[in-house]
Amino acid sequence: MHPKNVYKTGVSFAQLAKEYPGLAKCLKGTSSIDFHDPESIRQLAKALLKKEFKLEVDLPEDRLCPGVPNRLNYILWLNDLLVDTHEERSSPGPLQVTGIDIGTGASAIYPLLGCAQFSTWHFLATEIDAKSLASAATNISQNSLEDRITLLDVSSSSKILPEEITSHPQAIDFTMCNPPFYTSINDMLSSAKTKAVPPLSACTGSTTEMVTDGGEVAFVNRMVEESLKLREKVRWYTSMLGKRSSVEKVVEKLKESGVGNYVVGEFVQGAKTKRWAVGWSFGDRRAGDHISRQPTSHSLKSHLPFPTTFKIPLPTEAGLPTLLTEAGLPTLLPQVEELIKKACGEFPTESFEWGSIPLPYFTTMYGTVENLYSNGKGETSGNTWARAARRRRKMLEKEAAERRATEIPTEPRFRFAAGIFIGSAGPAPAIKGNLNVQEEKKKDDEDPELMDETDAWDHDFISLPASSMEPEAGKGSYVLLRWTRGVDHVVWESFCGMLRRKVLEGLAGAKT
């Protein structure tokens, strides 16, 4: 579960029932409810939304009852993605965000949660079902969110992404979607029959919410096709998926369509339920591995995007200085900082700065950013550090001066961030020459591919382990490099190799 999810430590049903009489009537014993009773899960959803978010929500009996913790996971992951990849801003404060919820449903759960969680978020919410539209309008109105959530009836449109995208004065920050799982009613019924055990809770969804022609893969693939025309009108197109195999198929579709900048998230809810999210962008802002490479399944390894995080463990043995500064920090750290500054001063940059205030690229690394010593960021026009690249640049400049070339080709922007992180005492792990991607599980012991929508109500609320992409704590100090903007991973790999060599050779020279 997301580190900032309020349900990560569980829910006390007994305590919640004391505060909400509607839930008290559904209490099973003193500490749980009957998850196979539709009224019980509706009362639980209403109580959770009221207690944590001050939201009053009507949930029709014949429409989907949303699992609040899992929906919140999606919202929080989206926020991390936006913070991590948003354009540089001159003004401080929270991001001003506009998102589109595709198929908002009767509850309008995503816009309500998004607005409750983030005061600067606004939504366009689409829906095709008349009854769901009416219920969503009521929920928006009774929470006084008409000025932040615009409901769109798209029942007459053949497109998934609304036409309002093209007329919006600014780029939309994201789309989000929880598409129907099943290809047909028979598919839904046969899936239920093949389960080894009954669903963990009752399912109240209507046919339009649960079934679509071709299932979730066909639905999201249509989104991909439509996005190829809209392109940067939306910064991040995203969708949740209920099947692991769907992630593979959607990623394959993205690659076939020439989309190289994408992310894969994973949401764990309860002991048996898992969901995934796939997002893609036509921009060149790159998300960190802790956001874009979340799944631990070995079967998804080849479908994850190229790593954007590179870890340089700092040696603490073999005669290197181990003295402490007045602040109690290893003298190695300011030394490493100077080595990075010097290295980045030896090649042309459009900009370079260094400081102690955490950059957005590291603030979403919960449990890790607290150990940040200092960090910096820089930008270049392509590869400006390699000798071959510099020679080619000079040759082009000479040809332009001699008028043998009309203009010098513009190199794609390359942006990076670097952070120095404080580790505990003890030797650093062995340094490897390739990108530091932690070995993933070899044994594929995942849950069954498809869980019912309402399985998200498993009341164990097991927390998601720390991201496999985050640096391990207590393994010595290290430098963490981030690829934050660019289109060519070869340039990124070259930069990592160069800076790693400069830092480690500089430290080795300090021994003598």
Structure summarized in a few sentences:
By secondary structure, the protein is an alpha/beta fold. Helix content is 34%, strand content 17%.
Q: Could you name the key traits of this structure?
A:
Rossmann fold; 7-stranded mixed β-sheet; 14 strands; 5-stranded antiparallel β-sheet; 512 residues; alpha/beta; single chain; 34% helix; 2 domains
Structural commentary:
- This protein has helices spanning 13-19, 21-24, 38-53, 68-85, 109-117, 130-142, 164-167, 185-194, 207-210, 215-230, 244-256, 289-292, 332-344, 360-363, 387-401, 489-510; strands spanning 27-28, 32-33, 97-102, 121-127, 149-153, 172-177, 234-241, 262-269, 273-280, 309-313, 351-355, 372-381, 413-421, 478-485.
- With 512 residues, the protein is of the alpha/beta class.
- The protein has 2 domains: 13-306 and 444-457, Vaccinia Virus protein VP39 (Rossmann fold, 3-Layer(aba) Sandwich); 314-429 and 472-510.
- A hairpin with a 3-residue loop joins strand 8 and strand 9 (273-280).
- Helix 4 crosses helix 5 (109-117) and helix 10 runs parallel beside helix 11.
- The model is unreliable at 191-203 and 425-474 (pLDDT under 50).
Mean pLDDT value = 81
Largest sheet: spatial strand order: 5-4-3-6-7-9-8
In the CATH hierarchy, the third-tier topology of the largest domain is known as: Rossmann fold
The N- to C-terminal Cα distance equals 48 Å
The CATH architecture of the largest domain can be given as: 3-Layer(aba) Sandwich
Which spans of ≥5 residues are poorly predicted at pLDDT below 50? 191-203, 425-474
CATH homology superfamily of the largest domain: Vaccinia Virus protein VP39
Strand content: 15-25%
